[in-house]
Task: structure prediction
Amino acid sequence: MTPQLGIFCVLAALSVLGALSLILQKHPIHSALSLIVVMVSLAGLYLLMGAEFVAAVQIIVYGGAIMVLFVFVIMLLNAGVEEHTNLSKLAGIAGIPLTVALAGFIAAAIARSGEAVQAAAQTGAVSSTRGISTMLFKDFVYPFELTSVLILVAILGAIVLAQREK
Amino acid sequence: MSSFLTTNALLIITLVKIALLLFMVLTVNAYLTWFERKVVAHIQSRWGPHRVGPHGLLQPLADGLKFLFKEDPTPAGVDKFVYFLAPLLSLALALTSIAVIPFGPDPIHLFGRDIYLGIADLNMGILALFAITALGVYGIALAGWSSNSKYPLLGGLRSSAQMISYELSLTMSVVGVLLLAGSFNLREIIDAQAHHPQWGIFGWNIWPQILGFICFFISAIAETNRVPFDLPEAESELVAGFHTEYASFKFAMFFIAEYTSMITVSCLCAILFFGGWLSPFPATPAWNFTHYLPSLLLIPFGLWVIWDGIRYETIFGRLILPAIGMAIGAAGAALLYFPQVNEFLQGPFWLLSKVFVFLFIYVWMRGTLPRLRYDQLMNFGWKLLLPVSIANVIITAFAILKWGAR
Result:
């Protein structure tokens, strides 16, 4: 077993355990902490694939900024232990088949494109910051700008909603 | 046995480096508390610690022992797991961040290998550092939340809001430097400032990036929760803020984390804006005499410590202070005697001198400035610091477009 495979196994196990714990924990803060574990171990996986920039941004944006806001809101509202309601009928009937179907689709997609994923990870063109910025600002400049407009609209919407009470 | 050593040489060297750096950082931390108390005391016309050992030099040791042996009660109703996790997280992240800092330009040749000063030379150096700082908020926020007490909760809330706000301007203010250097690697950022060796101090990033530096330093102080931005632990309002319910060594862990991040920030200031290990004098043969500056500083300082020591009031001080003075003076003389060692230590000497200056500024500000009010803090961060740092990025980008990076 190469060291890379060992690190991969640890990180993968951590992310799966974190995700399970996120769902099963009773207290919102514990769930948020589990989500942070997932984010950080995903960043570790990106690092393992040689995508250093994406890994750093994953931690800075998701692990740092967004999750801090989550924790902040939970602390501010002083949210207690969550209450469990009875499962809705629809979720009970449709949930399990849909989950199985989704898992099947993902497994099929991974099984079919296994080599392509490997190749994309090996090239390293995406890993460098220069490669990423060239792609963002040259090849995908219109989708990129459209996304930023979308985020701007969301920010403006948040401000309008917050101002309404006055 | 020897094959084991050669195959795992990199691992062993790194582990030894980590142990050495950890020891040094913790020692510097301990004496930083002594230094801070002394300087603040003298700013306020007091003597500061002077009972334990000559000039209070053994005070950090006494404090450390006290932290170790004090009773460590866990308050009722705390969230046990998070309560224990928070100080650990703070300390671990603070200590990890210092691993990215390079301390000198040249490697040591030992056992046929080049050993660089600094643990991890990452291509993503500065980004990795920001990633670690971004996670550092959790230590404080979670400590405040898990204590199940109102003052720590308020401190934790304040600190998360403050750190989110100032992280933006902290990151934006560095972009100018990154544009000039064209790299995230800290070594390459320093090398970019040595592009015109004959310019010396005028080649540093501080001149084109003066706005960036001001924004960076202010936001960095806010990120490390130091005066005048120490609202999370404002003792006049919140007892001690987020660490009110922590005692003994768990409290010490927060303390060490705070001082370690002070050291990291000072290193970053020196590296990003003040040329890192570069000498302020032009790197031309005419200025080679400045290489004797370390000796020129160490020998008189050693002599002064000896002179001060033989007049000290206690016998212990009269013995130990001259011994320390002789050691310092001998180190200075040894540098004169071994020119190769002297050349090698030039880089670390300049870097550590700059770090020391920034640490002094930290302490100086603590002794001088009053704490900001909370709304002032938020207004300042969002309405002044962030726009200025964004303007700095735009100006730098256009200047590089017009005149090039150098």
Summary: Chain A touches chain B at residues 27, 29-30, 33, 36, 40, 43, 52-53, 55-57, 59-60, 63-65, 68-69, 71-72, 75-76, 78, 129 (CB under 8 Å). Residues 32 and 149 of chain A are 29 Å apart (CA to CA). The longest helix of chain A spans residues 52-77. The radius of gyration of chain A is 20 Å.
